[in-house]
Amino acid sequence: MDSHGWDARYEEKELVWPGEPNLFLPPIVESLTPGTALDLACGEGRNAIWLARGGWDVTAVDFSPVGIEKGRQIAGDTSVEWVVADVTSYEAERRFDLVMIVYVHMLDDDTGNLFDRAITALAPGGTLIGVGHALRNLTEGVGGPPYPEILWTAERIAPFLKGLDIVELAERLRPVDDSDIPAIDLLIHATKP
């Protein structure tokens, strides 16, 4: 989906995503000292705002001007640097202690560009967190895009993480409201030497 498609989706209702951060972020982030953070493909900014309220200096990037504007409104007085840009070509002007990629699903070339940009933006000693819908979610989970070629597996994502120290690259179950079946996500937790 292009930026116009996401603009339309964000305009459809008040919030496309819940206001709280992705459930896999707090256990990792709370063990880190707040510093600089980059949220790539931030959408309406739920994770960026949560980080900023926790003392992080956050830059949030998304190609949807509507999503970015909603993030600004939701953030209120919370300080976040909002940037409208395509994450596959965005070049950060500084290095970050934390870089996040949460539910960004694209074909391999674009996924490779995204992770190259994320790793370049990561400061030495920094942490990369990624969360994506797992391929197995199509048959055994619930939610996410129905296109196998863009869903995440450890085998597909691992080559994009070269040069990082992998702490965790594994599937995680995520409860879903109004469903007896959990979603299956792939979690990336890695650090840059």
Salient structural properties:
single chain; 193 residues; alpha/beta; Rossmann fold; seven-stranded mixed beta sheet; 28% strand
What does this structure look like?
With 193 residues, the protein is α/β, with parallel strands linked by helices. The chain has one domain: Rossmann fold. The protein is built from seven helices and seven strands, in the order ααβαβαββαβααββ. The protein has helices at 3-12, 25-29, 46-53, 65-75, 108-121, 137-140, 154-157; strands at 36-40, 57-62, 80-84, 96-102, 122-133, 165-174, 183-191. Strands 3-2-1-4-5-7-6 form a seven-stranded mixed sheet. β4, α5 and β5 form a beta-alpha-beta unit. α1 (3-12) crosses α4. The longest helix has 14 residues, at 108-121. The N and C termini lie far apart (34 Å). The relative contact order is 0.14.
Order of helices and strands: HHEHEHEEHEHHEE
Number of E strands? 7
Alpha-carbon distance between the termini?
A: 34 Å
- The side-by-side strand order for the widest beta sheet comes to 3-2-1-4-5-7-6
Concise account of the structure shown:
The protein has helices spanning 3-12, 25-29, 46-53, 65-75, 108-121, 137-140, 154-157; strands spanning 36-40, 57-62, 80-84, 96-102, 122-133, 165-174, 183-191. The chain is α/β, with parallel strands linked by helices and 193 residues long.
